[in-house]
Amino acid sequence: MNKNITAIVFARNEERRLPYVIDNLKGFCNIIVFDGGSTDGTLDYCKKNNIKYLMRPDLDENLLGIKAYRWALRKVTTEYVLHVICSHFYPYELLSRFSKIANENKLNAVWHNVLVYRYGRVVHRPLVRKISSGCNFYKKSIINFKDSKIHGELAIKFDKKTMVRLDASDELSLHLFQDEDCESFTKKTIKYATIEASQRFEAGKRVGWVGVLIKPLVRFIYSYFRTGAFIHGVPGLVYSMLNLIYDFNVNIILWELCHDLNLQGGIKKSSLVRGKLIKNSTKAKK
Question: Are residues 194 and 172 both part of a single domain?
Answer without folding.
Answer: no
